[in-house]
Design brief:
The complex is a heterodimer of chains A (89) and B (262). In chain A, 64% of the residues lie in helices and 0% in strands. Chain A has 89 residues and is mainly alpha-helical. Chain A has one domain. Chain B is of the alpha/beta class and 262 residues long. Chain B is built from 8 helices and 10 strands. Chain B has an 8-stranded mixed β-sheet, with helices on both faces. In chain B, a hairpin with a 4-residue loop joins β9 and β10. Classes of the chains: A mainly alpha (89), B alpha/beta (262). The interface between A and B is medium-sized, with 31 and 31 residues.
Chain lengths: 89, 262
């Protein structure tokens, strides 16, 4: 089975949004403050917005998100919102 | 001249940022193995370290996805939270690798400005000797199918080694990646450690060439899509035997650090 596939073109805005959550510090900070606004600006569909707001990995992947982008966007959001969760030892 | 050192390293970011989800002692054992690579690099005094790594959709997004590439800027930089890195690039060597690679039929992407992925800087954080030699970042697409085949990666490594053998610089080759892990999937907490162990046994016997028989589907199934970076190194070191510095299976990752006698 394929764990990683070339995402469908229709999910480009969703993957771009996840990519920026992973790699763009300014974008991630704005997302933490105003998620709905940032997701709307990123051109996400209502379905995609609901899945991302809930951080529902399975739903996001079903909508065409690349699994690694979901994983690392969530990892970086945790680093942003809970500093105590890192440099633990 | 021939390679002066060759090593492969895991690069999972948890080794760097140390969240409480990780086993402290295991992480420190991997750090100790990295320290052995650092000692090897210090002892072999490379003029440049060529780092083969898989981009984690950091330098290249879906706007442009190269199979194989070379960074040919003057310096490169990458960031992961508060970890902020900048490395000098051995520009003459990088350009020469690019030009020779194209000449030999490898249609390489090149860039003078893309952000460096953690797959490059996590191993360098732990293994770069002082004073730090410049690096040459070499990209392999691992996360965005269709990726280059294991055979093609091996052939690129063979061509690279042939070319470097004729250069005046002392070059160390560092492959970053692996082993089994499945980030973002249901398999995240159940990597294929048996695949890793069998593969490492083959490498210890100098049988790296056999890995060219693996398919992309084999690598995906085993959580080893990043093994493509090791395949470049294996092409470069040929039938040299691997010296296993550590294999530390964590709850999500087969952490290996390996060196080859070159």
């Amino acid at each position: 089975m394929n764990h990683y596939a070339l995402p469908p073109a229709g999910a480009y805005p969703l993957n771009k949004c996840l990519f920026r959550l992973k790699s763009d510090d300014g974008f991630r900070a704005r997302f933490v403050k105003e998620p709905e606004r940032v997701m709307a600006e990123a051109g996400l569909s209502p379905e995609e917005r609901a899945a991302l707001a809930a951080q529902d990995r399975d739903r996001l992947v079903a909508l065409g998100a690349h699994p690694y982008l979901v994983f690392m966007a969530q990892f970086r959001l945790r680093m942003e919102t809970d500093e105590s969760a890192f440099e633990y030892f | 001249m021939p390679l002066v050192a060759a090593a492969a390293c895991a690069h999972t970011p948890q080794l760097l940022v140390r969240p409480p989800t990780e086993d402290r002692d295991l992480v420190l054992r991997v750090h100790a193995a990295f320290a052995r690579v650092k000692a090897l690099l210090a002892a072999t005094r490379p003029d440049a370290i060529a780092v083969v790594a898989g981009d984690h959709i950091e330098g290249f997004f879906l706007n442009a996805v190269p199979a194989l590439g070379v960074f040919v800027g003057a310096e490169c930089a990458g960031k992961f939270g508060r970890y902020d890195y900048r490395f000098r690039v051995h520009e003459p060597l990088a350009r020469a690798i690019l030009e020779d690679g194209i000449e030999r039929g490898f249609d390489l992407l090149y860039s003078q400005e893309i952000p460096l992925d953690y797959a490059f800087f996590v191993p360098l954080h732990f293994t770069l000797p002082e004073p730090a030699p410049p690096i040459v970042p070499l990209f392999v697409n691992v996360y965005l199918p269709p990726q280059p085949t294991p055979r093609r990666c091996y052939q690129w490594g063979e061509a690279l080694a042939r070319f470097l053998a004729g250069r005046p610089e002392r070059v160390a080759l560092l492959a970053s990646g692996g082993m089994s892990h499945f980030p973002g999937t249901d398999r995240y907490a159940s990597p294929d450690f048996e695949f890793d162990r069998q593969l490492l046994e083959r490498l210890k016997q100098g049988r790296g060439r056999e890995l060219t028989r693996l398919t992309g589907a084999d690598l995906d199934t085993a959580g080893n899509i990043e093994l493509r970076t090791w395949l470049v190194l294996l092409g470069a070191v040929g039938d040299a035997r691997a010296d296993l510095f550590c294999y530390e299976p964590s709850w999500h990752h087969g952490n290996a650090v390996v060196a080859w006698s070159v």
